Amino acid sequence: MKSPLLTAFVALALISPAAAQKAKPVTTKAAANSRAAPATQPADSAPLAALFEAYWEDQARLDPLAATARGDSRYNDQLPNDQTQASRNEYVAFAQRYLAALRQFDRAKLSANDRLSYDVCEYELKTGLEYNRFNSWMMPFNQFVFSFTNTFPLLGSGTGGQPFKTTQDYDNWLGRLRQFPALIDSAISNYRRGMRAGVVLPKAVVVKMLPQLRALSPADPTASVFYGPVATFPPAVSAADRARLTPLYREAIGRDATAPYRKLADFLEAEYLPKTRSSSGINALPGGPEMYAFLVRAVTTTQVSPAEVARTGEQEVKRLRGEMERVKQQVGFKGDLPAFFAHLNTDPQFRPFKTPEEVLAVYRGVQAKIEPNLKMMFGQVPKTGFEVRRTEAFREASASAQYNQGLPDGSRPGIFYVPIPDVTQYNVTSGMESLFLHEAIPGHHYQISLMQENTALPKFRRFGGNVAYVEGWALYTESLGKELGLYTDPYQYMGRLKDEMHRAIRLVVDVHLHTGQMTREQAIQYMMANKGDTEAEATAEIERYMVIPGQALGYKVGELKIQELRARYEKQLGKQFSLRDFHDELLKDGSLPLLVLERKMDEWAARQR
User: Cα–Cα distance between 231 and 245 in angstroms, integer?
Assistant: First the structure.
């Protein structure tokens, strides 16, 4: 669900600006005809549905990588260069055109479902247009795992979203890869423009990029991650095609993958690194404070200010430290909280695993344990399949546990990936139960699958999303652990508290980093003191926040909003409140901006009365 335009900063489901010249003109005559007086309960508007369908189709053309991730194979050979000024201008024209067409509809006369679609579409377009006012394009890539230079190899490895099942799939990838060098050249040009404008990345993160890029440019093409599809041809590719494709892939990997990655690494090391900044936050950049205030609003999908976010984070950190103290006392640990953290991190009793399969078995056991209680909490459950898998070896050393969505046609299940680079170091107190609830069931798997399966929604809502809702829901589901029969082990509950503390800390350090109140080093120490992370773990997290300002705020803000709504309706409705109905209503309309979600849920609660 990540798009090239905003992935690194807001992770909103907006389209890439690339290739907007291919977008069809919007026909607005039908929209004008939709102004006829509605019935008491207006039906969904066919002209508006046609507009949304055109909007979706143009998004697929404009962002072929997002289309591929959704299982739309029509553009699998395309990689538009979204690093150019022309592409940014084209996106602005595209968004303005659709926004004008949308506003020809009288929102007050639309059905409830269409009003939600109108609000979400308007929010996406307005946010995308505002984002384009800023200069983040001068810092195209970074060290974080979701940076394009790190996700592109996953596509080409044969184990990601890019299919490698037929000969045509193999030819498609060669076509897509062929366009990669031009994109890297444009990105280097953007870096140089940033150097001249004083818009550059922090030195600490550029240092981390260099080994990543060097690892993706081996001299031997067969040692490249991009050689994976050739190393394991599927049966559908004939012997003759294998003989044809193998030398083509070796040549393409060297020319279109290795060489561009090496060129980028050489540029960053020789030219860019000496010009990088020592500051940690974007407040130090031209226009930085204004951009950060926008990102906070965009990510949280609220009108909250950075200062308000930080205050909330500080309150949550204090509350969670109190809960952690109670767990420490419950298990009889005599030292202070930092000593308890060290005990959890180092005592061998908490690292009992001998094989990766033992780790996966624990997660599958969590699924079996919560299954009976899920039926009491959810009336609607997804049809999409679900699996727990170990993360692939080539990426698990630097990967986090994650959920990869399935496809609604059943051709791909939702997958909970668990990295286990060293099974002897896998710690049971890391929050295994809460992690499963968040990344798998009923977190991301339920929310994303139910959304994708809901054909009553226009496609941009079925396959879109925003951080505050998607991650807010997943974090909220961690709080359901006790109701689902989990957290009976105090150490697992401690893992849950550490996970929630992780998101609360983000509210403090992200704001303080990007408003100049904390340095990188101070933020690292703050995280270590309040959660017990090792220095390496805390450093990786803080450097993530440094390069995608505001993105991590959505998790906790979204969770707190959902908890606030639940408490409000429990009080308002009393015995009329149904937790199962509350959850079903939260999930049935897909990912909504929090401002839209709250209005919708208030209307639902009024109907219950």
Answer: 11
187 and 56 housed in the same domain: no
Of residues 51 and 609, more confidence is placed in 51
What's the pTM? 0.89
- For residue 210, give the amino acid letter: L
In a domain, 47, yes or no: yes
Q: pLDDT class for 14, splitting at 50, 70, 90?
A: very low
Q: Which domain holds residue 245?
A: 137-278
Q: Give yes or no: residues 126 and 148 share one domain.
A: no
Report which DSSP code applies to 202: B
Total number of domains in the chain = 3
Indicate the Cα dihedral angle 210, 215, 220, 223, nearest 10°.
-170
Do residues 517 and 453 lie in contact, with contact meaning Cβ atoms separated by under 8 Å? no
Lookup result for tokens 């936050």: 281
User: Is the Cα torsion angle 257, 260, 265, 266 positive or negative in sign?
Assistant: positive
Beta strands in 29-146 (DSSP E): none
Residue reference for tokens 């602005």 = 92
> Which class for 335: exposed (0-12), middle (13-18), buried (19 or more C-beta within 10 A)?
exposed
pLDDT at position 548 is: 95
Residues 346 and 491 placed together within one structural domain of the fold: yes
Q: Examine residue 600 and state whether it is found in any structural domain, yes or no.
A: no
Please tell me whether residues 454 and 498 are part of one structural domain: yes
Kindly report which listed range (299-313, 405-419, 565-579) carries the lowest average pLDDT score.
405-419
Question: Please, what's the b/e burial string for 294-315 (b: 16 or more CB within 10 A of its CB; e: otherwise)?
Answer: bbbbbbbbbebebebbbebbbe
Q: Could you give the CA distance from residue 128 to residue 59 in angstroms, rounded to a whole number?
A: 13
**Vertex 30: Cα angle to 26 and 33 (nearest 5):** 140
φ/ψ (deg, to 5) at 232:
-135, 70
Mean pLDDT, all residues of the chain: 92
SS3 1: coil
Residue 459 and residue 390 in one domain: yes
| CB 259 within 8 Å of CB 181 | yes
- Asked if pLDDT for residue 410 goes beyond 90, the answer is no
DSSP state of 349: G
Q: What is the DSSP string of 435-473?
A: HHHHHTTTTHHHHHHHHHH-TTS-HHHHT---HHHHHHH
Each residue's pLDDT tens digit, 502-541: 999 999 999 999 999 999 999 999 999 999 999 999 999 9
Q: Give the pLDDT mean for 73-78.
A: 97
Residue 451 lies in a domain: yes
| Residues counted in the chain | 609
